[in-house]
Amino acid sequence: MRQDHLITATQLSRDDIEAVLDRAREVAADPAAYANRHAGTVLALCFFEPSTRTRMSFDAAAKRLGIDTIDMGDVDSSSVSKGESLADTVRVIEGYADALVLRHPSEGAATLAAEFVDVPVINAGDGAGQHPSQTLLDLHTIRENHGLDDLTVGIMGDLKYGRTVHSLAAALTNFDVRQHFISPESLRLPRSVRFDLHETGAQVREHEELETVLDELDVLYVTRIQKERFPDENEYHRVAGEYRIDAETLAAADDDLTVMHPLPRVDEIAPDVDDTDHARYFEQAHNGIPVRMALLDTLLGGDEPGDEATTMGADHE
Amino acid sequence: MRQDHLITATQLSRDDIEAVLDRAREVAADPAAYANRHAGTVLALCFFEPSTRTRMSFDAAAKRLGIDTIDMGDVDSSSVSKGESLADTVRVIEGYADALVLRHPSEGAATLAAEFVDVPVINAGDGAGQHPSQTLLDLHTIRENHGLDDLTVGIMGDLKYGRTVHSLAAALTNFDVRQHFISPESLRLPRSVRFDLHETGAQVREHEELETVLDELDVLYVTRIQKERFPDENEYHRVAGEYRIDAETLAAADDDLTVMHPLPRVDEIAPDVDDTDHARYFEQAHNGIPVRMALLDTLLGGDEPGDEATTMGADHE
Amino acid sequence: MRQDHLITATQLSRDDIEAVLDRAREVAADPAAYANRHAGTVLALCFFEPSTRTRMSFDAAAKRLGIDTIDMGDVDSSSVSKGESLADTVRVIEGYADALVLRHPSEGAATLAAEFVDVPVINAGDGAGQHPSQTLLDLHTIRENHGLDDLTVGIMGDLKYGRTVHSLAAALTNFDVRQHFISPESLRLPRSVRFDLHETGAQVREHEELETVLDELDVLYVTRIQKERFPDENEYHRVAGEYRIDAETLAAADDDLTVMHPLPRVDEIAPDVDDTDHARYFEQAHNGIPVRMALLDTLLGGDEPGDEATTMGADHE
Fold first, then answer.
1. A53-63 and A132-146 helices cross at what angle (nearest 10)?
2. C84 vs B282: CB contact, 8 Å cut-off?
């Protein structure tokens, strides 16, 4: 019945992505039709790192499909603190559940877990690695507001460390999207990410100032600049201030500009933006529900009776 | 479908209170009739402060109505520790759930949350502020044992800091109840609370010794005197000892006296009281289930098909 | 409807054990038949000590029977930290739930809890005391692989402190089993446990080296030797190394030898054993689901309509 794991967004083809987003659209249109679709199924939430929104979002998505969840709880309270290996932990838990959602501080953790278990594994963040369900809900938000072709997207803030950004940028190369990256010099996209984007033939440009491209953008995706990246606090405040947007900043933007943010935000989007039609970051967070429902439904075999099983492109060798 | 928020007990009218307590009585009489009444609904438990009994009680009440719950978990593990504002947190979570239960260390937190979200918010304690579902279960316990009119209630212990006490005292002014407050001088009701009670025309008297009024009481509501309120530990032990009751103390009371306590207790009620007919504090705790079921049912629109929507008096502007 | 508590494995008769294991076998054969058997029931998970696998296993087992669960959460966040007694805590929680699973650092905690509450209490570990559901799943694993009679079982590792070992050894005396205990001198079975085993007429022998008995064994039950038991770390490494098994060690064993471990393991079983047919420790962990489903089903009155209530031997006076 089940299809596969979801380990990384970069391995999803355009068809894979559109299949999940089409289903998310169906879920959003008629959630009641999905209410008991997976009754009798158990999903294990294994968060080796703290998480509020991702964990609650998967939890709610599961329950809205009739799936029960069991939660590993804090790592401090777990067998992990007794020295158990990740491979052992997931091999035990797969006996309790029909699928696993895994967040882990180490890059590659989800890949490793998928090698050891037979139930579907969903990567909910592995260190500086991937967070594919975030990417899918980002894409869904863009698609529902603008479609995914002939589009200009700006991505601003900390482009060096943000896994959300790297993952989204890679996924966007599947579509006809011009990508503009806006950041201070010190927080530019890593060389390897830039290289990979160029390899795909993506239309990519980098800027230090938002003003340069603001009026061309359909979507502005803002990320948080973290204080701990700066040795000098004054330098942090200067930089953070330059990449902060408010309602006034957006006066120069197209009326249809969609502002997104993976949240939590601290200061990078002023509260007065919340009241403008540009603000789509809460809608984006809420899209976690239909997108994760669609994802769980796909991985747990939610096809119509008689359909062929679909497979997702995630390579989990 | 939904009605409103529940932020404070002081804004509930006599009719509001009686409507919830009538429904709680129905729930208690026939819980099976409510078992699947809200299937497909999700309740978010957002406890920014630790809680065992309130959280578990809401969790169980929800599940006994067929409601699924999602839990924010500890604040240490949450986005809050990344500096997210309460307004942002609740605006994200409202996309996951059909109602929110909120406990927060800051007075006014629930009022603020209710301004930002559209789903019902239930205040489960906001600092030194309100805890209205506790008041409703206190009232239900009194009502089921004695009715709510022509009644003499004594409230004893820490009357200065206890939000439970202030809330209960205010709610009792809706009924024909004589209130006696028994405490050491240093832990008397705050001036503002006394003033508000007098404003309503309530029959209120204060005492330093339980003996003075014990034989007049229908209900004795005991609260814990906290060690940390006393700079001197000897002084604490002297005072706490004077306001401790045991089976012998209660020999002078009316046979029908009901002893209540919001729990947890430490030493203020001796274990030998547990075996007397006076002891109603475990019954009181258990009343959390039907009362919170009635409350959730009301807020989520549990009226019979065709009925007019009822509204609760909570002003959450 | 409900039957009783489950406090200790040592008080279960052979008939009690076989009744639960027969039901576990039925559950494993046809889990769907049990999927909604206890819908509308609530189980409270009260873990006063951290636990991953036991808590998740009970949680999943409950949900696979249609039982909802409520979780006490961490003790730090609970009323316990306000000085509430265990008796008060469980008396409050019994009003929220139809049964309690209790883990507590103090030996005898479950016995005490069972004296104060009317709903079934399941002991999920009380300090150095008992952990009967672990014993039942151990027995189920042995039974499904070899049956429970005319059997030779070796138990190796830390035999002094392991409650799992003491409980299993006692339970095995109900069956025709030869027991071999393999450990360093310093971690031998406690005198009192040896005495109790001899009293039952059990066939018991002790060894310092696995080689002595390996080829006679049907089952080898390995437990972890904990570093903290040794004042000297070198001594720990020497001893732990001697009682570590790998695929090469097992070359001398019978082809049908079943290797078990209560998990988590650290180093005592090498990963290369995982790929042999001997390895049954993940299967053993997974058996927690049908066994705990059978146990919950029994305690919550899962008999066919019209049947007499069965009782379990657990003496919880």
1. 70
2. no
Rounded to a whole number, what is the distance in Å from the CA of B68 to chain A's nearest CA? 7
Q: What CA–CA distance (Å, rounded) separates A91 from A98?
A: 12
Cβ pair C146, C177 in contact under 8 A: no
User: What 8-state DSSP symbol labels residue B42?
Assistant: E
CA distance C67 to chain B (A): 10
Q: Across chain C, what does the average pLDDT equal?
A: 90
Alpha helix (H) ranges present in chain A?
14-29, 53-63, 86-93, 109-116, 132-146, 163-172, 191-199, 233-242, 281-286, 288-299
B208–chain A Cβ distance below 8 A for any pair? no
Q: Is residue C131 part of an annotated ligand binding site? A: yes
**Token code pair at residue A304:** 């119509």
**Nearest C-alpha neighbor of C250 from the set C225, C224, C214, C302:** C214
Amino acid found at A214: L
Give the bridge partners for B51, in sequence order: none
Q: Which residues, including other chains, have CB under 8 Å from residue B172's CB and lie 6 or more apart?
A: B139, B153, B179, B202
**Structure tokens given for A296:** 């769980």
Residue of A27, A56, A292 to mutate for B, most B C-beta atoms under 10 A = A56
pLDDT at position C74 is: 80
CB distance from C89 to chain B under 8 Å? Answer: yes
Spell out which residues of chain B touch residue C91, defining contact as CB-CB under 8 Å.
282
Going by the DSSP 8-state scheme, the letter that residue A181 receives in this structure is E
In chain A, helix, strand, coil percent, each to 5? 45, 15, 40
Question: Hey, are the CB atoms on B282 and C80 less than 8 Å from each other?
Answer: no
CA distance B96 to B70: 9
Are residues A286 and B92, on separate chains, in Cβ contact within 8 Å? yes
Closest Cα in chain B, distance from residue A265 (Å): 6
Q: Is B117 on the interface with A (CB under 8 A)?
A: no
Given phi > 0 = left and psi -120 to 50 = alpha, else beta, which region is A226? beta
The verdict on whether residue B264 carries a ligand-binding annotation is yes
Residue C267, number of CB atoms within 10 A of its CB:
14
Nearest residue of chain B to residue C41 (CA atoms): B64
CA distance B63 to chain A (A): 12
Could you give the residue ranges of the DSSP H alpha helices within chain B? Answer: 14-29, 53-64, 86-93, 109-116, 132-146, 163-172, 191-199, 233-242, 281-286, 288-299
CB C52, CB C310: distance < 8 Å: no
* pLDDT tens digits for range B60-103: 999 999 999 999 988 765 556 678 899 999 999 999 999 999 99
The pTM assigned to this predicted structure is 0.93
Token pair listed for A262? 């993976």
Complex ipTM, two decimals?
Answer: 0.92
For A283-287, B124-128, B306-310, which range has the lowest pLDDT when averaged over its residues? B306-310
Residues of A whose CB is below 8 A from B93: 53, 56
What token pair was written down for C139?
Answer: 């027995």
Region class of B295: left (phi > 0), else alpha (psi between -120 and 50), else beta: alpha
